[in-house]
Design a protein that fits this description.
Strands 2, 3, 6, 8, 10, 11, 12, 13 and 15 form a 9-stranded mixed β-sheet that branches. Strands 1, 4, 5, 7, 9 and 14 form a 6-stranded antiparallel β-sheet that branches. It is built from 5 helices and 25 strands. A hairpin with a 2-residue loop joins strand 22 and strand 23. It is an alpha+beta fold. The protein folds into 3 domains: about 240 residues, Sandwich (Jelly Rolls), CATH 2.60.120; about 70 residues, no CATH class; about 80 residues, no CATH class.
């Protein structure tokens, strides 16, 4: 249910974003449960119209105008927009998604109107014949129970072409499956209307015949309008989720909106660890009652997140007694060992982790763990040796005070934490010697100045 809700929101957002680019019509006035909307005057009685939350052409959830034939009225649901101001020197494209259900009784109608400043109708066929009721399409859609995109074109004032560009499009193929009638604005046209409705369903077929209308559009054909395929793709797009570990389950945090799955993406968002293909909703976890990191092959749970007291391993033949030799424990993505030492490159580890060989890493962090950083060098009572004392110590011992000799380092190795702190101590002592020399230099410069004067 959460995924369906997310898809419904996405469908509305995608269509809203695309509409906001060029669509002159405002369908945000549609509200579920209504039978009319601001800017959209219903055709027929209230019971012939219903705005419902239903399945859109792309299979998502969105607001759809349902035409529900009623008895005693030839208009069986749909709308005629309020009059919309336009610049008739630019052609306009009129669009709506439509689906007929039940039977082909009655007529699917898609129409427009044009008006001058006095409200006189001003629209004509391409042969210049004035038409006061300009239907771009009236008839049956190619198939029942299938969405089609109807696209009508009204050309600018002075248009001289004779071929219609409008048509009915099959969204599954993107192909125009029928041509519908184009019109053109006449001089003085300042307003238009968008009209789509169901007409003249026989009373006997009221219960079986219906029509759905969705996402009406009116846009200037000035080069900024999206292509027909763009509109189809936007409607048929879905959310796809990254499947980094290729286990067919997607990461709910990383997604793309597309008409078809991008490479490496899947349609579900059920993975709880997209870095590990062993962990997903089909993962089998084994109970580890004795806490030795080995799981009981007979006691299992199947789920994505690791249950408390369960591990991936299934090799424990006795889950009442910890296995000898220590205990590996996996907690989420962490693996820990707490009962002994671990050796890499050696079978005689003498510390929690002993490595015989090189270590390649990007960063090493060392806790002081009781060691003292050598800022004590800057304390007033620090017994800083004189330069003469240091010189004498080096002459006698062959290395700096408080630094192990080369022999000691060769025999015992080097404790990096300890050595770094000792080196910092020497750097701070050098800083004090520099300050002393600077003070002595200033004193000599002052005395030289007195002598020169």
């Amino acid at each position: 249910m959460k995924k369906q809700g997310l898809l419904a929101i996405l469908a509305i957002v995608v269509c809203t974003c695309l509409s906001a680019q060029t669509n002159i019509l405002d369908t945000t006035t549609w509200a579920e449960g209504g039978n009319s909307a601001a800017g959209f005057n219903r055709y027929g009685p209230p019971d012939a119209n219903a705005i419902v939350l239903g399945e859109t052409p792309g299979g998502n959830q969105g607001l759809i105008w349902s035409c529900v034939p009623g008895s005693g009225n030839k208009n069986d649901g749909g709308w005629q927009t309020t009059r919309i101001n336009i610049d008739a020197s630019i052609p306009h494209r009129y669009m709506v998604w439509a689906k007929k259900t039940g039977s082909n009784d009655g007529l699917t109608r898609f129409a427009t109107n044009g008006f001058d400043a006095n409200g006189v109708k001003t629209i004509a066929k391409l042969n210049d014949q004035i038409n006061n009721n300009p239907f771009m399409f009236t008839g049956d859609l190619p198939s029942l129970d299938k969405w089609y995109l109807m696209v009508g074109v009204v050309h600018e004032i002075g248009f001289t072409g004779t071929s219609s560009e409008g048509g009915i499009y099959d969204p599954l193929t993107g192909a125009k499956v029928a041509t519908i009638t184009d019109y053109k604005y006449l001089a003085g046209t300042v307003q238009t209307q968008h009209r789509a409705f169901l007409r003249e369903v026989a009373d006997a077929n009221n219960a079986t015949t219906g029509q759905f209308l969705y996402a009406p559009r009116l846009e200037r054909m000035d080069g900024t309008e999206p292509s027909i395929q763009d509109i189809i793709d936007a409607e048929y797009s879905s959310i796809y989720y990254l499947d980094n570990d290729s286990d067919t389950f997607g990461n709910p945090e990383i997604s793309q909106n597309a008409a078809t799955p991008p490479p490496g993406y899947v349609s579900n968002n059920l993975d709880c660890d997209d870095s590990n293909s062993d962990i997903n909703p089909n993962t089998v976890w084994h109970q580890d009652s004795d806490g030795d990191g080995l799981g009981n092959p007979s006691e299992t749970l199947v789920q994505c997140e690791q249950p408390v007291g369960y591990v991936l391993d299934n090799t424990d033949t006795d889950d009442t007694t910890p296995a000898a030799g220590g205990s590996w424990t996996k907690t989420g993505a962490d693996l820990s060992y707490v009962l002994g030492n671990v050796g890499i490159g050696t079978n005689a580890p003498d510390a929690p982790l002993t490595v015989r060989g090189r270590i390649h890493t990007q960063e090493v962090k060392v806790d002081l763990a009781g060691a003292v950083a050598p800022d004590y060098v800057f304390y007033k009572d620090y017994p800083l040796k004189t330069i003469g004392e240091v010189e004498a110590y080096i002459a006698k011992n062959g290395h700096l005070p408080n630094i192990p000799s080369a022999t000691e380092m060769e025999e015992n190795g080097v404790n990096l934490k300890e050595m770094n702190l000792k080196l910092l101590e020497k750097i701070e002592e050098l800083t004090l010697y520099l300050l002393q020399q600077n003070e002595r230099l200033n004193e000599l410069e002052n005395r030289l100045g007195i002598l020169e004067r």
